[in-house]
Design brief:
47% of the residues lie in helices and 8% in strands. Helix 5 links the parallel strand 2 and strand 3. By secondary structure, the protein is mainly α. The chain is built from 7 helices and 3 strands; from the N terminus they run H-E-H-H-H-E-H-E-H-H.
């Protein structure tokens, strides 16, 4: 969605404030951010080191989230957001693909289900707006045998 479309959407949200809307994604994405940035940023596209390229993608994704997306959402009263750091599955930004595991923001005592309940099963109070700043624990504490199995299957298909 272009910035113009986002601005239009945020204006509409101000007039349709009864709808509760939410957005969530992992901040350490390497999948959608690759699609979004790699072709358009030569320093990312031409980087021969895969780890360095992934790090640049994640930095750009987080920069866009914090400097562009969050300020737009903050202009509304009916948009919530929930941005945990990382889940070790497919380098994906998707927080709700497969299951709701590893979507916690431990520093705030939140799990992904808390956000979904806040948006869908509203029982009063404001919109949940949270993001994770801890850039270490999710990378150390994020192993699941099922994710490994699915990853192995997709690696076999892509070989």
């Amino acid at each position: 969605m272009t910035t113009t479309n986002w601005l239009h959407s945020t204006r509409r949200c101000r007039t349709s404030f009864r709808d509760r809307l939410g957005i969530t994604h992992f901040l350490a994405d390497g999948n959608f951010s690759s699609y979004s940035y790699e072709r358009f940023h030569e320093d990312i596209h031409s980087d021969p080191d895969p780890e360095s390229r992934l790090d640049k993608l994640r930095q750009k994704w987080q920069q866009d989230t914090h400097q562009n997306l969050i300020p737009l959402l903050e202009q509304t009263s009916n948009w919530g957001y929930y941005f945990p750091m990382y889940r070790n599955f497919n380098e994906s930004h998707c927080t709700t693909i497969l299951d709701l595991e590893y979507g916690e923001i431990a520093e705030h005592g939140l799990v992904l289900r808390d956000f979904l309940d806040n948006i869908v099963n509203h029982q009063g109070g404001g919109m949940m707006r949270a993001y994770e700043t801890d850039e270490v624990s999710d990378f150390e504490n994020n192993h699941n045998w099922f994710y490994d199995l699915v990853g192995d299957c997709s690696d076999s298909i892509n070989s």
